[in-house]
Amino acid sequence: MRGRRANLDGIHDLGGITNFGPVRPEPDEPVFHHDWERRVFGMNMAGLAFVGPVDRARHVIERMDAIHYLTTSYYEHWLHGIVTLCEELGYVSAEELESGKAKGPANLPHPAPDATMIEELVRVGMPAIRPCVTAPAFSVGARVMTRNMEVKGHTRLPRYARGRPGTIVAYRACHAFPDTAAHDLGECPQPLYTVRFEASDLWGDNVSRRDCVYLDLWESYLQGLDEGVA
Amino acid sequence: MSDDHHHDHGHGHAHDAPPSPHHSSDRSAEQNRVLEEKVARIEALLIEKGLFDKGALDRVIDIYENDLGPMNGARVVAKAWTDPGFKERLLQDGSAAIAELGFGGLQGEHLVVCENTPEVHNLVVCTLCSCYPWPVLGLPPAWYKDAAYRSRVVVDPRGVLADFDTDIADDVEVRVWDSSSEMRYLVLPERPAGTEHLTEDELAQLVHRDAMIGVRKVEPA
């Protein structure tokens, strides 16, 4: 499992495509449309203790084949995720998944959390902020350029915002770094900033010049544009 | 830019649109039956293997189906509209101010509140997956998780707003917040005119989920 990654720019990175049709809000939408969705959500949440970190759970969905991803629904993605992770982590075998019959107990480090422990997890959450090991390199107002990089695994820098100029609008403290955390390479916390991109810098001249996109980006995604800044 | 969208599909009501595989609630009865059976089999297997506890699974579904939802965010908004000190704290440190009302936790550990004004309209998306502030809004609606919204709102926010019959004046700046980290964003909508006489509880009744994502405005009662 360690280091398992797709060498990918995945289909999950959807920002900027405009031909998926209109957004269709559903009046009085229920939280779940079918009982199987309810159970898939519950399995992913109740299984968090064994399949985390969250970035690994995101990346297993990102590794889905593009056509499979686009032709399945949100909770089908989650079903694919929990089953794939349980198999890759060695908790369940392909044979067991096929037959539906357990051949023996999973080799788990501790018992599964009970209802009280799950309530506590929901109440407390899993904060991403970590003690800072470096001072932030950029201050609010600094001009930055995002790196343009071929992605070797999980990342949170969307394709549409690579190699683009922006402005730091907030410093959010040091956060665990998804690009390493997703691949068992450690949390490697880094300063996180909110960066403002003008719509015209992302999309060209054919959009409203007044509009903009804000993204939260880790320091290693950024290069300084101002003189005298690394 | 948004003119094209008006002509393409009127105002984009759901009933105008053809069936699309990209809308995740569109599954045939047969597909859903197959999924029900498959999921039941996998759940039974993974419980037998000790991967999770049935009571924990039932409880976590109950929490997100019944205990958490946009009624929490509506209380935050109504308090911000009626208590200037709270609003100031809310905009300064969203997590801390929202914790005053007892809300926080999973997928809302680091909350930021974006205030709509006559000059600025905010809306929230997660283009890479479906990040959403669960403690204050509950689980996201299907459209928030589907490809149509996630793909288009960053490049054509005004066209997407038109799908919700929301028109933002040309001289208003539209800010799209793409939730790429564990920071979670909640929009503080503008308080509608003519609501000066309403109490905080009555105001909370007016505030709906879509206004706190930023795709609609709050209308007067």
Please give a quick description of this structure:
Chain A has 230 residues and is an alpha+beta fold. Helices cover 30% and strands 15% of the residues of chain A.
Describe this structure in words.
The complex is a heterodimer of chains A (230) and B (221). Chain A is of the alpha+beta class and 230 residues long. Chain A has helices at residues 35-46, 48-51, 54-62, 66-70, 74-88, 94-99, 115-124, 178-181, 199-203, and strands spanning 143-146, 165-175, 190-198, 212-218, 222-224. The longest helix of chain A is centred in the middle third of the chain and has 15 residues, at 74-88. The mean pLDDT of chain A is 92. With 221 residues, chain B is mainly α. Chain B has a single domain, classed as Nitrile Hydratase, Chain A (Alpha-Beta Complex). Chain B is built from 12 helices and 4 strands. The longest helix of chain B is centred in the first third of the chain and has 20 residues, at 29-48. The relative contact order of chain B is 0.16. Classes of the chains: A alpha+beta (230), B mainly alpha (221). The interface between A and B is large, with 95 and 91 residues.
Task: Please write out the topology.
The complex is a heterodimer of chains A (230) and B (221).
Chain A: H1 35-46, H2 48-51, H3 54-62, H4 66-70, H5 74-88, H6 94-99, H7 115-124, E1 143-146, E2 165-175, H8 178-181, E3 190-198, H9 199-203, E4 212-218, E5 222-224
Antiparallel strand pairs in A: 1-2, 1-5, 2-3, 3-4
Helix pairs in contact in A: 1-5, 3-5
Chain B: H1 2-9, H2 29-48, H3 54-67, H4 70-82, H5 84-92, H6 94-100, E1 110-115, E2 120-125, H7 134-137, H8 142-145, H9 147-152, H10 157-163, E3 173-178, E4 183-188, H11 200-206, H12 209-213
Parallel strand pairs in B: 1-4, 2-3
Helix pairs in contact in B: 1-10, 4-5, 4-11, 5-6
